[in-house]
């Protein structure tokens, strides 16, 4: 799609767009101190020149609102006037002052912000209202999509990316522009087939869709939470059913309805052990249970105030309704002290050694009475927390004493912790997303402690700038796409979605250079220096876009610097140190220098002596590097065997340490082809 120009639009569309963008210059009655200002192709507007910079001016309209306008957009007479203007008003606003307030709002508007209850601007939003009427009448999205696309593309086409972030945020501060922008992006996230099924069955979908398309903040919250792995058809079917069955999901508890819809597109079953029959959790019953518990003051949190992605770690409790009720009445802990619930479960050594099943029902009350091993302790702690409205998860990982499970949960506002039940020597763990079923590193929860997640404005701004970048991409405006992606990463560098968009935009950018990629990769590593999965992605980008020739010394020096910084900051993050050694070895392997690879791994084994998870990963990587050279592979296996005997075999008779050492022996035998 190419940029729209004003002259290419029909008279009807021009009228729509003038109405939509009128907030930028407003409308005034005659004033002695005001003059006419003109953006070519639009009616003149009376305003006072308040301040100027080389790129923009601030104009004050009769309603007292200030509007920043790029000088390049104004007529030549206006530009000449600005050049000669001598501004001496000490009270004048300056560019960069807070955005102009939204237009006067009318309580009769059916469009409203569901959090504040404040109505949006009906004069502008009537366009959307009329368009959705036409869409349902014609059983086609075309009339609605046309208004959205014309409005957003035209406005963005008029803005210059080089003028800065604030220009875009000022535009989105106007309710009608915000609504058009959000709904345009909202529809872009839904497949054509799904949209078609909805609009062609108005008797089934119209009430729900009219509600949704009159609430842009709900649509925005949904977009920030939905994941590409979600099943939109199932999500919308569940969400609509919740909306119909539970009126509270239409207002105060809209976020709870969204979270349940996003979680239950994949069935949630009550966890049992042995041959007990599976019981599937009903999303309507689960949603109603949490809303009633919240209204009854039975929860430790205010779930109506949580972000949707946080709530998915609450409503996904894989226990029965009876368990939820029991946990709320019997476990007397505060949110910040919920870690104590892990130790409530007495450890059963025979369950660990024989994998015995001492349970009849595996309900929470029985686990408390009987006891269990680490996975039972973590299951109990996480699900009693979820029952009480506390986001929580079971995290598992490998360490010097073998596989282990511990607890992660939200301790309080802005703090997630995964320290409960975690032993020394356990570097990092993994859980599974209740929304997608995909593995999630616990470092992702550490990101949720960052300022960009705690600050809701930064969180929303980061996502909005991503969506603006997407629109520029659809307009084939690669400069705008990349610039807005950079803005997004600047405002929300700890939001993985901003990183994804920055990478995608740079891949689309035809003038991308080695310097561009170095800058982006450096930024990713700075923001995600404790997240192994993302650091591995940065390494893959480096290999793809940074030529090795001429950069070897710089790359190796950067790796060594990163490794030293990690070891100084946190000596337990051997998972990242292993990955950095692997990156350094990759550079040597790309130069066909396997002797250098061996030297790197000799240092790595000395550096990480006795760390069993690190030993396993180093051994897998080293054999993979030398696989194509039989002699080097034999040397690698001899090195692995030597350090196994020297650093891993401890002589301990402790059960878990012995089991962990046996797992290393099995790995070595497998690498030798003897398993």
Which structural class best describes the helix and strand composition?
Answer: alpha+beta
How many runs of DSSP E, i.e. beta strands? 9
Low-confidence stretches: 1-32, 88-120
Give the radius of gyration: 30 Å
Please tell me what the overall shape is: globular
* Mean pLDDT over the residues: 84
| Strands in their spatial order, largest beta sheet | 1-2-3-4
| Count of DSSP H/I helices | 31
Query: How does the major sheet shape up?
Result: 4 strands, antiparallel
What can you tell me about this protein's structure?
- The protein is of the alpha+beta class.
- The protein contains 31 helices and 9 strands.
- Strand 8 (430-432) and strand 9 (439-441) form a beta hairpin.
- The longest helix has 19 residues, at 456-474.
- The relative contact order is 0.05.
Compact overview of the structure:
The protein has 675 residues and is α+β, with helices and mostly antiparallel strands. The protein has 31 helices and nine strands. The protein starts with 10 loop residues before the first helix and ends with a helix.
Describe this protein with a few key phrases.
alpha+beta, four-stranded antiparallel sheet, three-stranded antiparallel sheet, 675 residues
Helix and strand layout, with pairings?
Elements: H1 11-21, E1 35-37, E2 45-52, E3 56-60, E4 66-70, H2 76-84, H3 122-138, H4 142-158, H5 165-172, H6 175-188, H7 192-199, H8 202-212, H9 216-225, H10 232-245, H11 254-263, H12 283-295, H13 308-315, H14 321-330, H15 340-343, H16 349-354, H17 364-370, H18 374-387, E5 392-399, E6 402-412, E7 415-417, E8 430-432, E9 439-441, H19 443-447, H20 451-454, H21 456-474, H22 478-491, H23 496-508, H24 514-527, H25 532-545, H26 552-569, H27 574-590, H28 594-607, H29 612-626, H30 630-648, H31 655-671
Antiparallel strand pairs: 1-2, 2-3, 3-4, 5-6, 6-7, 8-9
Helix pairs in contact: 1-4, 3-4, 3-6, 4-6, 6-9, 9-11, 10-11, 11-12, 11-13, 14-18, 21-22, 21-23, 22-23, 23-24, 24-25, 25-27, 26-27, 27-28, 27-29, 28-29, 28-30, 29-30, 29-31, 30-31
